[in-house]
Amino acid sequence: MTTTTIDRPTKESFADFWDAPRMVNPMFLNAPIARQPSQGRELVNLSELGIFNKIVGSETGYHTQADALVTQTSDNVDLNALWAEFQATLEIFNDRRNALVSLLSYPVTALIERVPQVGSVEFEDASEFGVPKGVRLVQTYLSLGYDFRDYDIATRFTWKYLRDHDARAVQAVHNAILEADNRLLFRRVMEAIFDDSARTAEIGGDNVPVYPLYNGDGTVPPTYKGTPFDGNHDHYIATQHAGSALVDSGDLEEMYELIAEHGYGAETGTTFVVLVNRIEAKDIRKFRQGVATNGVTSNYDFIPSANSPTIITPNATGLIGNIPPSTWSGLQVIGSYMGILIIEEDYIPPKYMLMFATGGTQNLQNLVGIREHANAAYRGLRLLPGNQQGYPLVESFYSRSFGTGVRQRAGAVVAKITASGDTAYTAPAQYKRGGGNG
Questions:
Q1: What's the mean pLDDT in 284-294?
Q2: What is the 3-state secondary structure (H, E, C) of 282-308?
Q3: What pLDDT, on a 0 to 100 scale, did the predictor assign at position 202?
Q4: For the residues 146-162, what does the mean pLDDT come to?
Q5: Which string of b and e fits 297-309 if b means at least 16 CB within 10 Å?
Q6: Which residues share a beta bridge with 174?
Q7: Least confident stretch, 89-93, 193-197, 433-437
Q8: CB–CB of 63/55 below 8 Å?
Q9: Of 196, 208, 295, 401, which shows the fewest CB atoms inside 10 Å?
Q10: Residues 140 and 116 sit within 8 Å (Cβ to Cβ)
Q11: Cα 163 from Cα 75, distance rounded (Å)
Q12: What is the pLDDT of residue 93?
């Protein structure tokens, strides 16, 4: 292809040249320009001559014309190849969510869930006429709402940055955003559980309740197997120990009963799990049947899992029952107490414990609903090209839209370990709504 070069004129001489239409072919401006000047000649910079306005600056969010020439990082990795790689990792990341979040949550897309609260009926003696009384069951519903918010963050790389840095620098930013998204999702789920305050979500112009666990707000849980409840029923407890605020076996047994009395357990396909901090885990490892720990005698033994540190058991008489698994649903298990799996997790603040019943990964019986948009295109963590469509890695938008709300108000208990006199549950600052992203 023939290229065209011209001697470099001044602005004034070019203006004179432009004013002489007989000397200018309008197609000149569309002619290809050589990338390298021929000997003794320079390429024309049309922006300097006032013909094209200069495209300015990173401060406005736009990039210069030179950006289009940067298609690789300094180690010759194609930007479009990196973009495809990032999209692929997002697909894997969205499919393999944090194991803990998956056990605590269930995905929903409905704006409001209407959960039936079934009453009870009784049989009566049959009459000789063979006409039994018809059941008149009053069906009530509990409307469960979920909040919904949009979150985003952007990456912006100048062409000089991409020219001088290798692919690892770009990948590091991508990985940091994945970690931030993981923390955001985890924190919002934990806030829904640990924060016992009431909240509402505006849905269709109405303020719909978004519930925590049962918190004594006047809601009466359904009767289960003849056990009635009242509007003061509360799954946020303060332990109120005499003396020091240290965990004892009675705390785990009380938490278990508060959940089991609503019908959760092995017969309904749920497993009990308690998450504790490293500090509380040290005391729980000491629980032995008939032995007092922190002033309370245990009714069961703590059974170490197979991957627990080796211990010497003098005069051991054997084990009745099963050794708890080393891992369960991707989480490390340190042992069990009365069948409850004990998981040491430092995301749980000291002096707090969370016990919950779970049906497994993203099971219908799980505690928290994670609401995503009904349109599947808006679910998960999305990577979107920015204003520079030709080379999307120059500017990229990461977007996540979701909300939370407790679906199983009786499916968990949060305990704050307190000394006598400290009777009120308060949410830990770490998981109180209105804070940062964790």
A1: 93
A2: HHHCCCCECCEECCEEECCCEEECCCC
A3: 83
A4: 86
A5: ebebbbbbbeebe
A6: none
A7: 433-437
A8: yes
A9: 295
A10: yes
A11: 9
A12: 62
Which one has a higher pLDDT value, 185 or 205? 185
Domains and CATH numbers, the chain: 11-54 (no CATH), 94-116+137-310+321-431 (3.90.1690)
Whether 210 contacts 145, CB under 8 Å: yes
Q: Is the dihedral of CA 337, 340, 345, 346 positive or negative?
A: negative
CB 113 within 8 A of CB 406: no
Provide φ and ψ at 279, rounded to 5°.
-65, -50
Confidence band, pLDDT 50/70/90 cuts, at residue 359: confident
